[in-house]
Amino acid sequence: MSHRSGRHFLQIPGPSPVPDRVLRAISAQTIDHRGPDFAEVGKKALQGMKSIFKTSQNVVIYPASGTGAWEAALVNVLSEGDHVLMYETGHFATLWKKMAAKLGLKAEFIEGDWRGGADPDAIETRLRADKAHEIKAVCVVHNETSTGSVSPIAEMRRALDAAGHPALLMVDSISGLGSIDFRFDEWGVDVCVSGSQKGLMLPPGLSFNAVSERAYDYSKTAGSRRSYWDWQEMVEINRGGYFPYTPATNLLFGLNEAIGLLHAEGLDNVFARHQRHAAATRAAVQQWGLENLCTRQGQESGVLTAVLMPEGHSADAFRAVALQHYDISLGSGLSKVADKVFRIGHLGDFNDLALAATLSGVELALRKAKVPHQPGGVEAALAMLENTQFGQTAAA
Amino acid sequence: MSHRSGRHFLQIPGPSPVPDRVLRAISAQTIDHRGPDFAEVGKKALQGMKSIFKTSQNVVIYPASGTGAWEAALVNVLSEGDHVLMYETGHFATLWKKMAAKLGLKAEFIEGDWRGGADPDAIETRLRADKAHEIKAVCVVHNETSTGSVSPIAEMRRALDAAGHPALLMVDSISGLGSIDFRFDEWGVDVCVSGSQKGLMLPPGLSFNAVSERAYDYSKTAGSRRSYWDWQEMVEINRGGYFPYTPATNLLFGLNEAIGLLHAEGLDNVFARHQRHAAATRAAVQQWGLENLCTRQGQESGVLTAVLMPEGHSADAFRAVALQHYDISLGSGLSKVADKVFRIGHLGDFNDLALAATLSGVELALRKAKVPHQPGGVEAALAMLENTQFGQTAAA
Amino acid sequence: MSHRSGRHFLQIPGPSPVPDRVLRAISAQTIDHRGPDFAEVGKKALQGMKSIFKTSQNVVIYPASGTGAWEAALVNVLSEGDHVLMYETGHFATLWKKMAAKLGLKAEFIEGDWRGGADPDAIETRLRADKAHEIKAVCVVHNETSTGSVSPIAEMRRALDAAGHPALLMVDSISGLGSIDFRFDEWGVDVCVSGSQKGLMLPPGLSFNAVSERAYDYSKTAGSRRSYWDWQEMVEINRGGYFPYTPATNLLFGLNEAIGLLHAEGLDNVFARHQRHAAATRAAVQQWGLENLCTRQGQESGVLTAVLMPEGHSADAFRAVALQHYDISLGSGLSKVADKVFRIGHLGDFNDLALAATLSGVELALRKAKVPHQPGGVEAALAMLENTQFGQTAAA
Amino acid sequence: MSHRSGRHFLQIPGPSPVPDRVLRAISAQTIDHRGPDFAEVGKKALQGMKSIFKTSQNVVIYPASGTGAWEAALVNVLSEGDHVLMYETGHFATLWKKMAAKLGLKAEFIEGDWRGGADPDAIETRLRADKAHEIKAVCVVHNETSTGSVSPIAEMRRALDAAGHPALLMVDSISGLGSIDFRFDEWGVDVCVSGSQKGLMLPPGLSFNAVSERAYDYSKTAGSRRSYWDWQEMVEINRGGYFPYTPATNLLFGLNEAIGLLHAEGLDNVFARHQRHAAATRAAVQQWGLENLCTRQGQESGVLTAVLMPEGHSADAFRAVALQHYDISLGSGLSKVADKVFRIGHLGDFNDLALAATLSGVELALRKAKVPHQPGGVEAALAMLENTQFGQTAAA
């Protein structure tokens, strides 16, 4: 047995650290998923997820990763050859598009520079051009985990409406939900995809679809061949609190605990906390003289901050130094920005001092790895935290 | 908070009770699934599952229920319109067939009476008739969880070989693996489907495909549109101990612990234990004057025993009595045998005294529910256990 | 790693099996025992223990075994040379007397035969003879863990009152509290000693004194030299929810959970459950043709049953067989009855089927060890359980 | 349920944060403390503690707080009226002296200023003056938890030897053991007292005596009336791995895990880590312009740093701000220095980034509470950590 003293800092943009209470909830003995006690667990989880999505419509819970819920969203409403409009916010948008293509959809990409969220004007323009309404769905990533940029989802709905286009609005909020503001009903989203291991503070293994009545009705007659991901049977059987196949019981125990924690803190407080920590992180990045990958002001993510390495320095070598010397896991750059950025996760079960530790880890590793930078990043972050209450949002 | 004193007896045929050590393993803090520590976890899990499947070929682990692994098995090698031969051993064989149909396959069923395993002769006969080799796969349930019958898988291979038929042999051992003898390589299975919550003693949420080289090669060019379930990317990335999408990290911690427990006991001892407890259960059933659903001698399951209720008595009412009065969960009859049988799970993390408790629960509930029966079932089971060592198999 | 499948049956008369919820509560992160959150924990524990002792007077919680609380009870009110009257109910009464002697007290024993509780008439007679009131305290074991006999504590108070004797009434209810009826205030007890690992369903490591105002006042001027065990500082500092020295924080977390479980079941239901299981156990013992160590009717313990081995058979050899073959721990005979009795614990977090398992373990081990007995003990116990509801007391 | 996001920082000088692995070990089901499996646990714990104390002599483990082990040390070798020489290093030395007095000993105090460890010269001088060898024991606190000063224990032995005095050398290393260098045998200590909740990284509830053969022999004929604390029966029964009364089983599970962690890291690495973090903490304190309570160079504790508040500022008000706003618990000043110092714990399961978080918490709270200070303390600490490897000691 080897052992490193102290707690590992898991500061990737998900999985995020799981609160002890949630881990304990998960370690309760498994129960009969067809018995009366389970129905309470199931109903509570489904109802709880509605409160997190802010929807009174449908929520589906899969024993699967977020990738599975992506597939579920696509196959329930889209059929081979269907045209979907997607927006290249970064790596995960690209993966979702690849999946769409693999599933036989005609996936059109509005190219992006990976430095901001999706552009509603570009989408509106494209939709206006689609007089024949061939585009069946618009797919946007809410919080692009690879870049730390947020797409303005309410604006997407306005773009669709302005264009008078009937396409479904499908949103990936795998890493946004539970950390940054999301309002399924109010924003007119048709399908939202999410996962357990980010703002929901669970281990990976559960994923979600929120489904509008319109999308649900659509799925009755449309969609690809599917079985595991099929909404109909799920929604039907969920009414009683049960599932059509064996659910991931223990993760559901944890989900109910985690939803309780989110509401105990208050969703608005949760969102404000993430914004505040993101702002403090950006203050540190600026002081270091490094560059934030996200350049679109107001679209910086509350969940993570992706930082560009100075030319000629390997982000992965830097991350390895951070892990080896300071026992902190940072996120890697993915595909286009591989080895060029590292990502700091500041989501989930997190607080001011954990942020101070995280930024100290980055700063120490910058020194250790001899990455050119100005010192004082931690100091700058502390200064930003200084005048705000714990649990309150920064003044500006 | 309401509370019933003492431990609940979860004696359904899965999920089976999770050992405390496995629950504790699952409650360890989640780690970075892209970091170096994870690679060790991943490799250990994949290698460990090979030892359980008894294969040196490929194993795929999904963050999904067993139902997902069913779908994975089908979509990786079969395309819309492909002909598959399935055997009606019971409810789960029927569900798998329904799934095949839903996925666009031409699923042919050899009808069965739900009272025994699949018949290799019937399969051989059908295959011989298929001169054109239109049947792409033969799908058989190893341990039919709805009936407590076991299909002779080695015989299936012999049937295919005798018929000189090239169809793939696909086996569902969701509830068999880790409880009753299974030998992927030796028996010439092409695809085996399994799940975490039965003999593997985990909570639900992981499922598995074991894949022969032949099936794997086949999948490169064949199969349905798929993404989440696709073997290729999985197997490729698994080589390094990683996964193409976020794995269910904490369940993998538990899987490694559970595999360790199985090997610590010894797989042969595990199998013998299940046989011994099944035999003792049948002795009790016989003494009660009740009928075992499985009538094919030698095909009775080591995992569970399905018991027919006397005419005019509701199995579900009986199970409700057992749950309410004796805090024991028994399995329900499914579809054709709904309300007609109850199922006693004697699988997983189990021992002689837990069996005594289980059978006592059944006997007490028979009395309480006024189900006609002869007393002395527990006594008969104890007598059968008497002359055999703990951890040893019954003399026969 | 070696591994025996299934759950061990810990059927000694304490430590009793700890409910999973309590184990999880204990595994919460330790907190600052001087911080505001701790005060809530401390107050809840102290208040909770008052509800279990049924007292509105004082409760003291020690980070110590029950043996420590024995010492605490003695040294707070008795000084070197003080005369105490004790009653030989069994091994633990004898140990307590030895401790008293070791601490310099003049400990007088009313001899007993270890086959029943303390006799109030004998005590009254002795007290009447003590005209000078030299006896400072009467010490009685409520539930004698070595024999399975219960002393009638309310009768002890009546004996003191009838004799008009001012001695303090000190009671050891280490193994009785939380399992069988105990009423500190109503029964006029002055000091009661208890421990965590029996009816309170915790791991060992906490022990308790309930202290009447009279005993507390007495301790201000009387008692032996003491520091760790001193009530005064404890009670004083406890008012704020804190402790004079570091408390066993995590066990207190568990204590609060366990008290919650007891009240959720209802103390009267808890007591009735123990009586019912004790009655069923005695039915089994009788059927086996074995002898209960306790012969005084109405004084048989609800906590445990001590069973005499047939002449010429070693109880310890029998227990070793039970442990080796059936993974059940039974209690050994102690001192006078060493190797002559084995003890069946049926206390704490327990239910009907766990009792069936326990008695099945005894019966199987009797056979395996070739101990002469009549079969059918389990059957007899089931018959006794049959007509009573789970969670209800036996009709007689 | 209220909830604060993120992990609480428990930076008092004990209890220290308990590693998750230890918490999980503690949450294993309780076992029979008289059964064969327990003997392995007991032997491992006793042997393990010898390796931590660095002794081949005797170790005694109590289910008790450290305060209990203090009492045990005194009562086993000292009798009413015995003369003991103690040294006023701070609050805990004073409490130990009060206890000695309460137990009837004639406790003589060499006064100290609470700003350094015990002075061996003063002790030697006093011992030389004791021609009649009336002093039976010299009692010194190794790591004074109230002040953050370390007494040079090897020097104490040299002082006794130089004075040719036969007194026993008794050392309190409750908060030192497992964090800073301690060598029972090499340093010629006769009795050492320790506890579980500091360097041993356990919850409170276990405490220890290491006992030299000389002290053990002494205790056979000397000492006060005692029972619970008596070494003789303990050491005797411990030989088989068992205990004379019920041990705190689950804490022993945790102890074995914790000892394993300490050895996995390597005791020398553990000590170096504590020194390095203490040095970095002092660098921060110096930068803030605050004063370390310990002024004796070379005697600053690796376990904690006690910081003097500027005149006119309340340490307790400051600590309340730190707790409320930054969710960090700091230690309070005790008795003489109440409200004048706060204490930063940097012991146990700790690492560089946790230190950065801790010092950030202090710095943020200094600002928030408007305590006059120079900024840049965290920065200064990071600079000190910069040139040293994780897990290595500072260059000096």
Notes on the protein architecture:
The structure is a homotetramer of 396-residue chains. With 396 residues, chain A is α/β, with parallel strands linked by helices. Chain A is 42% helix and 16% strand. In chain A, the strands form 3 sheets. In chain A, strands 2-10-9-8-5-3-4 form a 7-stranded mixed sheet, with helices on both faces. In chain A, helix 1 runs antiparallel to helix 9 and helix 9 crosses helix 10. Chains in contact: A-B, A-C, A-D, B-C, B-D, C-D.
Attribute tags:
homotetramer, 396 residues, alpha/beta, Aspartate Aminotransferase, domain 1, Aspartate Aminotransferase, domain 2, 7-stranded mixed sheet, 13 helices, 42% helix, PyrdxlP-dep_Trfase (chains A, B, C, D), pyridoxal phosphate (chains A, B, C, D)
Provide the CATH superfamily of the largest domain in chain A.
Type I PLP-dependent aspartate aminotransferase-like (Major domain)
Total number of beta strands of chain A = 14
- Give the CATH class of the largest domain in chain A: Alpha Beta
Q: How far apart are the first and last residues' alpha carbons of chain A, in Å?
A: 48 Å
The SS-based structural class of chain A is alpha/beta
| Spans where pLDDT lies below 50 across 5 or more residues of chain A | 392-396
Organism (chains A, B, C, D): Pseudogemmobacter faecipullorum
Cofactor (chains A, B, C, D): pyridoxal 5'-phosphate
Keywords (chains A, B, C, D): Aminotransferase, Pyridoxal phosphate, Transferase
InterPro entries (chains A, B, C, D): Aminotrans_V_dom, PyrdxlP-dep_Trfase, PyrdxlP-dep_Trfase_major, PyrdxlP-dep_Trfase_small, SP_NH2Trfase/AEP_transaminase
